[in-house]
Amino acid sequence: MERKWWKEGTVYQIYPRSYADSNGDGIGDIPGIITKLDYLKNLGIDIIWLSPVYQSPNDDNGYDISDYQAIMDEFGTMSDWDQLLQELHDRGMKLIMDLVVNHNSDEHRWFVESRKSLDNPYRDYYIWRAAKADGTEPNNWESIFSGSTWQHDEQTDQYYLHLFAKKQPDLNWENPKVRQEVYDMMTWWLDKGIDGFRMDVINMISKVEGLPDAPNPEGRKYASGGDYFMNGPKIHEYLREMNEQVLSKYDIMTVGETPGVTPEQAIDYVNDDRHELQMLFQFELMDIDSGPGGKWNVVPYTLTDFKRIMSKWQYGLGRGKGWNSLYLNNHDQPRMVSRFGDDSTYRLESAKMLGTLLHTLQGTPYIYQGEEIGMTNVKFDTIEHYQDIETHNMYNEKVHQEGQDPAKVMESIYIKGRDNARTPMQWDDSEHAGFTTGTPWLQVNPNYPQINAKQAVSDPNSIYNYYKRLIQTRRDNLVLVYGEFDELLSDSETFYAYTRTLNEERVLVILNFTCSDQAFELPKEVTYQTAELLISNYEVDPAQDIRNFTTRPYEARVYRLN
Ligand code: NOJ
């Protein structure tokens, strides 16, 4: 397998609004990020992914861009951004930017023009349609943020398509002018020296011709149109064109966000021969607890469900077929330790165990800000304390339109709401966790006196210092980067265990996913002379025979087998 920096590196995602506020306005900013670069370098981070910092009215916190080539005023200036890039490069770190081109903002100048008249030169930059003969929306698709995907516009008495919020009109990728504008903009950023892109919902840019109604067996007001806009008919044509015109000219990293993609489909995006992207963010694990009613309809799952998904992707993109991206949370998902671990009694142990998983599977690990100190989900008393548009739209629909019990809806927000991940970064135990001297745009999680970076950096037993060792261990052992994955004990509801093999080298990983002591027995087929402990989240007796031993709650061990 070909060695690549983006396979060997560790990525850290920054959600700028919540990271570090330098000027006391309660909103994180670029100068704030710059003050934290040594913290990140010390952790061992190679690559920063910056969520959008572009000019935006912030209906969806920057994922609604009104100017792709300007920095949001609240975040600073272009010269602050230039300094950020320089300071990262000076430290030997790389920067990847968020590319949001499925849609932009209704305040983008293209849309301001587009909506003016039917014959405006920008009309065809977006997807406009007339009402159906019966006067209803052009089709029945449901927006990912609730309600219809169509918004009526008085000016021309037509509707425009928005898969997300109504202030996020979808761009019309059928129009070659739109594609050229996007490629030119990407080239402009790459020529400024960035090291790649994370591409927002990139598998939604090609819609099925005719935009047909989605099946609606339950007779709901709107229906999921995913099959008509995810992995659409021209997606690979567009990505190859983008690759040929832009991406192939630079030594960069690309990761596409692609909900609803299977490993088979993923190969078509990331296999080297395809000349499209390098990695994808797939959602199978993120959807593990979503019921028939979607993400807010939370259902239980088992460890074997969890492992089946993870292992399927390991095999699916392994052995040279592609390359995995590995993540357990991000700015759209609940906190990893609250969701897959235990955020009370065994917070330290389970966060370290999950971190061990992240850094020992095959793929590039992505750490989301605050994960490295074990930040947890949050519970605010009332909906008013939440800021996220997806959360509010859902709450309004379920409580005010459908009459559901508000307490029940709040429960689902506590488990799945995006603001769980967006509470300000907890830097220390001073007021507002040291995030701001002003009033934070979203309240700080009240557990900051115990959970904060200052404590974590100075405590040798912290999650932060364990992550530091994990990153170093992966760096020192190429078998952890490139080695082939083989699962052990796949039926176990207690352990996730696997080996990684690269030529003569082999590593064994044992993870206890439960909150109790569990007897571990190594399958007979795993033979070895000596087992050398590389890392563990507990004290381990080096002389212990690992064929049979008792693991402690959420214990994680990684051995090199000789
Ligand atoms: C995915 C992003 O990660 C999310 O935050 C955003 O709301 C949607 N795409 C729309 O851009």
UniProtKB/TrEMBL annotation:
GO terms for cellular component: cytoplasm. It is found in: Cytoplasm. GO terms for molecular function: alpha-amylase activity; oligo-1,6-glucosidase activity. It comes from the Bacteria. The keyword Hydrolase applies. Its EC number is 3.2.1.10. One of its GO terms (biological process) is oligosaccharide catabolic process. The keyword Ribosomal protein does not apply. Residues 13-422 form the Glycosyl hydrolase family 13 catalytic domain. Coiled coil: none annotated. Its main location: cytoplasm. Belongs to the glycosyl hydrolase 13 family. This is oligo-1,6-glucosidase. It comes from Tumebacillus permanentifrigoris.
